[in-house]
Design a protein that fits this description.
Elements lengths: L1 H12 L6 H14 L5 H20 L2 H4 L17 H10 L4 H7 L5 H17 L12 H46 L4 H4 L4 E17 L3 E16 L2 H5 L4 E16 L8 E8 L2 H5 L1
Antiparallel strand pairs: 1-2, 2-3, 3-4
Helix pairs in contact: 1-2, 1-8, 2-3, 3-5, 3-7, 3-8, 5-7, 5-8, 7-8
Length: 281
């Protein structure tokens, strides 16, 4: 059983928050490693509750209900189902039309159904019947490995699709973002040039901070291609100035509001250019 812990705990932890979520996963493994007639049942129950907690964190009720696509489900006491939460965790308040027709992501519903089935499988062992009580060590290990595999697949799939949505959104807004940045002053570039013009932003790593009903917050590590200008336009025409094309790393945090056209409203919370290479020579 310890081999399962060594194989899966760190991988699942990589997409969990510090504190309760990681402690719950750790407790699930403690249940699995403690021989008793209910260890597999307790383990499956803890994993199911972990997935439930992650979904509630990623898709809180008050945010989910604000989505245009949300329709209450009569089979749920509060109208919200796991499928609703999985969908929100991936696309937030973005319309189905935009996700499918503009971002070209058409697997959200299929993935939602698949992940919902995984949670239902975990629930089987939480209802203690004679056939699921006091499982053998061999059956416990085999079943636990199956559940760990699908739980890891569950959290990774949501994380992957959230990132795919963010990647596609960034592709759609990069021109408007460049226009926005060029209309303002970039402190670091002002330090080393008279004027500057950013030509391109190439993202290297995009991380989703939060998906909401009305916006998506992401951090972006990127490379900017910029032209540093020295002297006035007249000076440069007379060869008394200079233009230097150069690239710099940049880190930014931004909130993209889901307003039409997408990218027309961006709250640029941080935009820091690393110009250390300029001084390193």
């Amino acid at each position: 059983m310890e081999s399962l812990r060594n194989e899966y705990q760190e991988k699942i932890n990589s997409v969990l928050l510090d504190g309760f979520e990681k402690e719950l996963l750790n407790s699930a493994f403690i249940n699995l490693l403690t021989p008793n007639a209910l260890r597999l049942n307790n383990f499956a129950y803890a994993l199911r509750e972990l997935t439930r907690h992650v979904l509630h964190r990623l898709a809180p009720d008050n945010e989910l209900r604000k989505c245009e696509w949300f329709r209450p489900d009569g089979t749920s006491s509060n109208g919200i189902t796991r499928k609703h939460r999985i969908k929100f965790a991936i696309q937030g308040g973005l319309s189905d039309f935009y996700v499918i027709e503009k971002l070209y992501i058409d697997e959200v519903d299929d993935v939602s159904n698949e992940l919902k089935d995984i949670i239902n499988d975990l629930s089987e062992f939480t209802h203690i019947e004679e056939s699921k009580f006091n499982s053998s060590t061999e059956k416990t290990k085999k079943t636990a490995e199956q559940y760990l595999s699908v739980t890891l697949g569950f959290v990774k799939k949501i994380d992957e699709l959230r990132k795919e949505v963010a990647d596609k959104i960034f592709e759609n807004i990069d021109e408007m973002l460049i226009k926005r940045i060029n209309s303002e002053s970039v402190v670091e570039l002002i330090e080393i040039s008279t004027h500057q013009y950013i030509e391109e932003i190439t993202p290297e790593k995009i991380h989703v901070i939060k998906v909401g009903a009305n916006s998506l917050v992401m951090s972006v590590e990127a490379l900017i291609d910029v032209i540093l200008l020295y002297g006035s336009e007249s000076d440069r025409r007379k060869d008394n100035g200079a233009e230097i094309p150069i690239s710099f790393p940049v880190y930014s945090e931004m909130e993209v509001l889901f307003k039409k056209p997408l990218g027309s409203v961006i709250n640029l919370n941080q935009f820091s250019v690393d110009i250390s290479s300029w001084y390193d020579g």
